[in-house]
Structure formats: structure tokens, C-alpha cells
Design a protein that fits this description.
The complex is a heterodimer. Chain A contains 12 helices and 15 strands. In chain A, the strands form 3 sheets. In chain A, strands 1, 3, 4, 7, 8, 9, 10, 11, 12, 14 and 15 form an 11-stranded mixed sheet that branches. Chain A has a two-stranded antiparallel sheet with strand order 2-13. Chain A folds into 2 domains: 2-46 and 296-425, no CATH class; 95-260, no CATH class. Chain A is of the alpha+beta class. Chain B contains 8 helices and 10 strands. A 10-stranded mixed sheet of chain B has the order 5-4-1-2-10-9-3-8-7-6, sandwiched between helices. The chains are: A alpha+beta, B alpha/beta. The A-B interface holds A 2, 6, 9-10, 12-14, 330-331, 333-344, 426-429, 431 and B 46, 49-50, 53, 55-56, 75-76, 79-80, 82-84, 88, 90-99, 103, 107-108, 110-112, 164, 176.
Amino acid sequence: MAIANLALKSFRNRKLTVLLTIFSIALSVALLLVIEKIRVQAKDSFTNTISGTDLIVGGRTSSVNLLLSSVFQMGTATNGISYESYEEIINHPSVKFSIPFALGDSHQGYRVLGTTADFYQHYKYGSKQSLTVSSGTWFHGDVDVVIGDEIANKLAYKIGDEIIISHGGNDSYIHHDKQPFKVSGILAPTATPIDRTVFVSLAGVDQLHAAQKSIAVGHDPFLTLDLSSLKKSVTAIFDEHQDHHHSTETITGFYLGLQQRPQALTMMQRVNNFADEPLMAIMPGVALLELWSVLAIVEKTLLAVSLMVVVISLATMLIILLTSLNQRRREMAILRAIGARPNHIFGLMMGEAMAIIISGLVLGSACLYAVLFAVKPFILNGFGIYLELSLPTAEEWTLLALVGTAGLVISLFPSMQIYRYALSDGMSIRS
Amino acid sequence: MSAIIDIKQLKYSWSENSDFEFHIDDFNVHKGERLFLRGPSGSGKTTLLSLLCGIISADSGSLNILGENLTTMKAGKRDQFRADHIGVIFQMFNLIPYLTTIENVVLSCHFSTLRKQRALTNSATLETEAIRLLAHLDMSDENLLHKRVNELSIGQQQRVAAARALMGAPEIIVADEPTSSLDADRCHSFLELLFKECEAAGSTLIFVSHDLRLKVEFERSVLLNRQSYDNSNDKNNGKAVVSLFAEGGA
């Protein structure tokens, strides 16, 4: 009791240093927890980018590349699959649904994904959530597009706006400006790459390129085009789409949903050994984890850095306790003289350290929630990670306990030192 | 008069190989006595005070205070004994700098329920008892009571230290050169106040100083001297002998 009272008053006397120490511990703890939270939720968010799909099928490449191009719309699209192969593969009793897609175009840096109504109906993300439109409807006609939430926000699009799709990747300067599309729907935010994707019908993509091809082979662009007749002739003579295929003759790949999960292995075999074309199938869950393990080094580095920060702040506390030691040696001799035992002196020092650490932990956790609350919208917009403001998880409690224990172990050092002083100095006042 | 402190054949050395051994054959202090303990630096004053206060324990012999032998007592019990029965005043830096005058005085009751009870027989609360004692020591100014002690003058600080030592009327007051930082006038008035309060509390005063001028104010004076072992019968002022003997050295 008396000791706690003394410790409190001693704190009041050294307000600034004590507050700074608490603050530094609090900040480091908050940083540690934020990084831990982001780490866990990024992983969750990442591995749940696509769910409910058992297999992704595409032209033969590496599994990570297929995943990147089909789910994250990054990297280069793989070689196409002929529509006949697609139909042959999905014509199988174990197939519950399939979603074909064609990649290769972009709009203002956002990838365009040609697909069918199956996408809207069957594609699932997170914990098997379906896509919903926040306004408008999924496309019906060939010139309708549906855009992700981020695109709608960033480019300020609304239903009925006309957009121009560019040929190829981000830096393309070939615009299909004769073929404006009309926004028919905007998807609700998903915190997945869906938010950054423009959806058009496969037929829409097809038309787009038919026009493109006709110009490339020398047709007068000012003539009214008979697209359907042109398409066939042009594809035959001039195939400029060797690097990325997107017509209904070829698709880039497709998602497969099966009746039962275990059938995925058999189906994978079937796809990988498909005789007509070199194809490959990946299980998205497995591939996502595989890709995440590549990113794990980043995750571990982050954690290591935040642990370092904790170590530094604990070292600061140690320094502050140690420098106060000489000044407090005098005080300890006085306490000894009025009957304090060396144990009391030890307790006083440990009590102070404990108070600093606990205040640091509490303040740090409070800071964390304040920071999370503040950055939540930015994280969601910038990284597509939805931060959950929940109570600390078991791992976070463990981290907190770990920091607390480490702090107490460290403060044993000055406490032992002052205990030794208390024994050796006795009542002689040294400073 | 009964002996409040009774020392017989007390031996203490700081370490096994030490040249010096602290040795007291026979020494008594009576209840209510005012003892002046004098000795040059290095003569073992601090050692004697540490032994009396139970900070260190003698190697052999007996040190009886209030009928209890400190030599055989465990360290924790000696600390409690000190808290209960001994008030200490240092040369300087007597006070916890971040506490107020009153908080410093009350502090002596934190480690001793005995002294707390005694203080409460005089006054209703510990604070009023502290104020009462401080008033007796010419520290009645309301402003001084709630000031942080590092804002007080040295003379005031020593009086606060005296009040803390006297709080709860311990049987023995040990003062280690408490006047060395005071000028002659203040020194004299400090002693007067200290004597008066010791008498009021019924406390025995052991006053350590190398200042010969103060000797006349005390009933008895003892010289602590480093001597070789064979001169052990050397007397000082015709009073009891307290000696520190050098072994093996010159």
C-alpha cells in the first residue's frame, strides 16, 4: 500500500520521462498489434479472394501465373482455350457450374473481363458471398458493361455513362472508340479484385475486336460495318491476337464449380491430360495459399520490424530506469533508514516498471483501436482489405502478454541492482 | 537507570581478509540518555550506526537493544525492529524530494504499525501529529507544510528530518552529523529543539559528530578511535571505551 503510494508520487515527480516511456511503449505495442491485425486480415482477405470455385482452368502456364491472371487480373493472360474444348470439358456429370472468361482489354488501367451471366450467378468470394449490384443490373446486351465499386468511385461513373475500352494493357493507346459501351450496373464493394474489374459480355468483346480487325486490314472505318460478316474474314487473314485471345472462338479460361469437392482431383487430371490442347487446372484455395507463402517473407519482415520497435521501446524503459537508479539510491537509503526492507525497495522498482508497462499496453491497445478506426476506410479503399474492429484475438493477447513479460524480465535488471545497492549501502547515503 | 543498549564483546569485520576489525568490549547506553559519539573519519562511526540500526549484523558478541539481541536476529526482523524503535537523522538528503513536508514526516509510520499507533495516541490523525511535531520544531508555517521539501532551506529540511525521526516516539534517535550543514546559530537552536523533543518523547539520543564544540551540550561523550589491539585499555573522558582495532596493520 505504502509502496504503491510512494511509487505514484515518485511518478508524479518524474512525469515527463515516465509519460514519454509509457508513450513509446504504447506506440510500439499499437504498431505491433496493427501489423498483426493487418497481417492476419490481409491473409484472410487474400485467401478468400475467390471461394466456391473448385477449379480454375486456363492455358498451360505456372499455377501462380494462372491464378494472378484469372483472379487478380495481373500479369499476362495465358494462351487461349478454344470454345470447343471448353464445352467438351464442362460437359461432364460432375460439373455444377462453369464461368468462361476472356481477358486482354482494359479501361483506364482497369482490366476488362469478358464473361457471361454465369459469372454474376455463380462467382463467390469471401465466405461464399455472391456478387450483388449496388445499382443497375448485370449486363444483358452486348454493349452493356458492369463495373466494380472502386472503378465507379474513382472514375465517378454512374448508370448510363458511356465508356471506351482500350486494346491490351494499361498503357495501350489503341482505343476501341468506335465501340462505346454503356454502364448498366455497378457492383457492391467486395474488397477483392472484382472491385477493379470491368465486366462485359463475351459477345461484346468479340464485336469490339471484329471492328478493330477490320480497321487493321484496311477497311474504311467510315463505312458502316457489317460486323458479323467481317469477323469471320478478318480472323482468318490477320490474327493480331496471338498474345491474348478473346473471341468466342477462344476464351482465356474458365472457373469450374463441381458437384462435390473431392471430384476436383479427378477433374484436374482430366483437364491436365486433355488431348486437344495443353490446358491446366488449379485449385484456387491451394494456389492462393501457395502465392501467400511467397508473400510470407513480407509478412514476417513486417512482424520482425514491429518486434524490433517493441524491443527498442523496452530498451528505452530500461535506460530510463537505470539512469534514475543513481538519483534514487539516496531515496532508497532514506527508505531503508525508516525500516524498508530490501524487498520493499525491490518491489518499489518492479512496481514502477510494471505500472509503466501496463499503462503502455493499455494505452497502446487503445491507440490501436483509434488508429484502426481512423485508417479503416483508407485501408479498404487503398488495399481492398476490410479491417474488422473486433476484440483482441488469442494471438494478439499472446503478443500483449509477451511484451508485458519481456518488460518485466527487463526491469528485473535495475530492480536487482537497486536491491544490491540497498544491501550494500545500508544507511550510508551515496549518490 | 536501565541500559537501553547493551553491547558485549561485539566483533565485526567487513570481509574475511579485512585489515580492520570493529571491536567493542563493553558499552552501555541508558534510557533517556543524550550521548555524544565522536570520532575521526574512518574510525568506524558508520559501522557502529549500521550495527545499532540493524542494517548489518555483527560476527560475534551481543548487541542488546530494548532487551533484544540484534546479533541473532534475522535481517527482516532487524529491519522491522529499526522501523519500530529507531528514528534516524542523516547529515543531509534526509527527505524524499517529491513528497511534501507532512508526507515526509508521516512516512516513518508506513513501515511500522507500532509507531503509527503511538502517533495516534497523541493526535487524531497522523497528519495532525506530524503538524504538532513540526510546530514544536518551529515549522508551524502553513505554507511550509504542503511545500515540496526541496523548496525548503537546509535548516528547515533538517528540522523536518528530526520530526520524521521523532514521529511515533521511537525509543532511540540516531543522528549522524545532522548539524554539519548548519551554521553555528542554527546548529545550536536545532540541538535545543532536538533535545526538547527527545525528552518529550522519552527517546534516547545517540548523536554522532566530529564537531568538538557540541560536546559540552551532551551528558556523556564517547570517542570512537582506531587503535592497535594492545592499547585496548586506553580511556577517553573517563567514560566507556568504544574502540576499533587494527589487525596486522600499523
